[in-house]
Design a protein that fits this description.
The chain contains 5 helices and 11 strands. The chain is α/β, with parallel strands linked by helices. The strands form 2 sheets. It has a 6-stranded antiparallel β-sheet. Strands 9-8-7-10-11 form a 5-stranded parallel β-sheet, with helices on both faces. α4 packs parallel to α5. The longest helix has 13 residues.
């Protein structure tokens, strides 16, 4: 497992993910290493503790990697990606970060989603909102080793179409034999997918728990609700994986 350390990152790209009409600011931030610095490797699902040296009065906070562990290689300086929503003073400052500005991070931290012991199994990924970030890290990792797993399904939930993050990328996962179900809490006339919460879509599909593990990421209330649904479907707690 990666050893935690403290280092700086420089912003390479700031990409807004929510619709311009949406009041919620959600961005994908891509960071690069500073000169002569190599980024630590990490396990999909792990996080870092991030702060802004330019605004030391803002308390540091935790953000999960949204990038592939394969983006950090021994022969390259690599990159990190994070999906961040402006919900508190630090995250509001981060979503407005300009290219070239630096952050200080400590990490990697957490147990992540280590699927090395689950090769050959069916994998289900479930997350809502920015909880999609650590799951993106997982599916990018799995794409590199798709032959190591049986069926793979993603259940993603968003508040509305304006909050639907990583739309094109999620739709492209069919190319890698990954099934994607997207639920919107608030539907609209042009939306033909599930309306409601991700656990409702899961309950409707009723996947078999045989030879299956589930990676859950998101708010505690969502994790609790999804866990309850999974247990009702016959899964046991050992089949439900959390990244913290």
């Amino acid at each position: 497992m990666s050893q935690s350390s403290t280092f700086s990152l420089r912003l390479q790209k700031n990409e807004r993910l929510t619709d311009p009409s949406c009041d919620d600011d959600v961005v994908k931030l891509t960071f690069e290493a500073l000169a002569h610095q190599r980024l630590p490797t990490f396990i999909a699902g792990q996080c870092v503790r991030m702060g802004l040296p330019s605004q030391p009065d803002l308390p540091a906070s935790y953000f999960a990697f949204a990038s592939s562990p394969h983006d950090v290689l021994p022969h390259d300086t690599g990159k990190y990606e994070f999906v961040i929503k402006g919900v508190h003073p630090l995250s509001h400052a981060l979503v407005k970060l300009k290219v070239g500005e630096e952050v200080e991070v400590e990490g990697p931290m957490g147990k992540g989603f280590d699927l090395s012991a689950h090769q050959g199994k069916n994998i289900i990924l479930m997350g809502v909102g920015t909880g999609i970030a650590p799951l993106r890290s997982v599916w990018l990792d799995m794409i590199k080793h798709r032959e190591n797993y049986a069926s793979v399904a993603i259940y993603a939930g968003f508040l509305s179409a304006a909050h639907h993050l990583l739309t094109d990328e999620l739709q492209s996962l069919a190319e890698h034999d990954i099934q994607v179900s997207i639920s919107l809490a608030t539907g609209h006339d042009d939306w033909h997918g599930p309306v409601g919460y991700v656990q409702h879509a899961l309950q409707e599909d009723a996947p078999t728990p045989d030879n299956t593990v589930v990676c859950l990421a998101g708010m505690n209330v969502m994790v609790d609700a999804c866990t309850e649904t999974l247990l009702e479907l016959g899964f046991n707690e050992q089949q439900i994986l959390l990244n913290f």
